[in-house]
Structure formats: structure tokens, C-alpha cells
Structure prediction request, 233 residues.
Amino acid sequence: MRFQLSLALIGLALSLAPASAWAQGKKQPMAGDPYTLATCPISGKALGSMGDPIVKVYDGREVRLCCGGCLGTFEKDKAKHFKAIDKMMIADQKGYYPSKMCVVSKKSLMKKGKDIGIDVIVGNRLFRLCSDACKKKLIAKPKKYLARLDKATAKKQREKYPLETCLVAGGKLGSMGKPVEVVIASRLVRLCCKGCPTKLLASPPKYLPKLDAAWKASGDGKKAAGGHGKHKH
Prediction:
């Protein structure tokens, strides 16, 4: 009886927790978030401007490129190009990052008024850490710390969430039951039903700019983040 009760409580906790992109759908071919940038990391052109993007996965990280020519260039020096992608993703996500605490050690990222955080991209998601030791722990157990980060992000952004409608379907949130929550690219996204996350993850650049614009227009943009300044738009 006690065992059954424990399972029930675990199930309830999971049902109330926001889902990360990592947890959405077994059809996802990667271990991390989808590629959320709107441009090809090689050409700098808008994805989709040359037809459907080429989608590749390397060690659990999804990359989207505009054409076959860029794919060849990318694969000649993946380390170099992932470094450039990391830089762009840090710039895109840092304004929404929810905490001034290390997600691994739970220690402050501030020292004498100065931000000492280390910015690390794992699975296309930004993690802010206090040390290289914490980076090793993160890489060893990324889903453990992702769950912690998702919880902090949802808590920080839910109260002042700037949209009353589903980012994907456009319907009023709550019209189809309790909204479905997904955390992607350091952003909480609230959706009307279980069918919408698949569409969101298939094409993040199609939907996220609308959410970014809503945060900016609401005047609560800084409250969405953990005090890391203005968002990159």
C-alpha cells in the first residue's frame, strides 16, 4: 500500500512539472533541444530561404543548415562551428535565464557584485555554472540538472507570462483544459493541448519570435529572467 501511494505521488509530481524539449516525444532524434536559431550557422541565411533545412544530429545535438553546401563545410570542422553556435545560443538564451545560482551546486554566481558564471551549452540549452567541476557533473547527468533548470524557468516566467493564447494554435489558454507547458531555449512556452508541442519543436524559429515580442511589449521582460539584463531580439 505504501509503495502504491509513493508511485501515485511520483506520478502527480511528474504531471505538474513543465516538460523540457528533451522529454517531448520519442520521435525526437536527439537527446537535447532542437536547433532553435533562425539562421544557418555557416551561411547566416534564414533557414527555409533555400528550401527545407537540412537537419543533422551529432552526439545528441541537432543542427539545421540551409543547404548541402553548408553541410559539407560544417562537417569539415564541427568543433569550430559548434563553438560559433554556442556563442549565438548563449546570446539568445541568456536574457531569459531564470537564476543567479549555479544549477548544479546551487551556489551564487555573484561574487562582490560581479557575475562569475560560466556559460555552457549542453544539448542546445544554456546552463550557467560556478565552476569547471560543476560542468563535469552536468555533462555526466544532463537530464538531472535540466529538470532543475526547467522548474526554475517555469516558476520565474509563469506568473507574468505575456500571452493569453496558445503560441502554436492561437486558441485561448485554458479553453482545452489545463495548458501544456514546455521549456525550450530558456523560455517557458504555454500551449493549449498535447498536440501543440510537436509543432513547436519542429520549427522553433517560427513561433519563438512572437513570444519574445510579447515579453518585450509587456514590460515584464526583466522579470522573465533572473536579472541578466535585456533579451536579445
Remarks:
- The mean pLDDT is 87.
